[in-house]
Specification:
Number of strands: 7
Structural class: alpha+beta
Radius of gyration: 13 Å
Order of helices and strands: EEEEEHHHEE
Strand content: 25-35%
Oligomer: single chain
Strand order of the largest sheet: 1-2-3-4-5
Largest sheet: 5 strands, mixed
Helix content: 25-40%
Length: about 110
Amino acid sequence: MAIPAHQHADEDQVLLLQTRRGTIRVSGDTVHLPGPSAAAVQLAPGPLALMRALMKAQGAVLSREHLLAVLPHCGSEHALEMWVSRLRQSLPDPSIIKTVVKRGYRLVV
């Protein structure tokens, strides 16, 4: 069963987020992106947890402190920065993950 990103989703459920480019879908450890570069991208657990947190925020900025609180396996700001970097490297369009200076990160929707 697919559920919208704004509702609570367990890690094994399908998560959906409607964007200007189409629907982003996370199923298991795979992210399905919309658009001409549409691709299914398999993610490691850390970047996957980060992607799910950003999708649930629906484009809102999430502070580093908040992300560290909701991503218990992250552990430090350095690890969070590495997860952001690895997530961007894994996506065909890394610009969908934005850094908001002095505030945190957000998903471009």
